[in-house]
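Here is one chain, start to finish.
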Amino acid sequence: MTSAPDRRRRLSAEQRRAAIVAAACAGFDERPFDQVTVADVARASDSSEPLVYHYFPTKADLYAASVAHRLAELDDAVTAALDALPAGSGARDRVRVVVDAHLTHAARHPGAWASALDGVGAEPTEAELARAAARVAHLDRLAGFLHPDPRPERHYALAGHVALLDGVTREWVRRGSREDERPAVVTTVLGSLQGGLGDWGR
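Its structure:
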């Protein structure tokens, strides 16, 4: 008796890895880390479990790759929004489009944002490190919008802004990502940062 032929799609290594990451993103968007299995991702990506483990030795590695992918998508969206601004746009306008890009990303992937920010299902260290790196990059980008200022007040104003943006975005997602409330979210976040800075500087 012969075994049934393997009808799994033949993909290049790069395509297979991308398919696995896409399936992992979809799964973790809907459920927290501890409720998604490698078998779930294998089925969704038309892969075998051993093949998933070939690319990602642990489930934590797989989850971290999905988090990194979503963060890269967000960074690309922010970059595109900034590039679309008219030349010479001021710091406030730049921050505004960054905030708006975050909200749009959260609206598209509400489960991922809510579970990550609410701590639903413990995140592995690899994912926490990816998020920490993204926060540092966000701070650096914000600082680049403003005149150099070595005072600690500047640093804490920007750090507080990043934390507030996360928290307010989580609350906006919890309330259903209502578009009629988007302007209130943007106004709140911008007002808080302006209060911490004193003025926009540019």
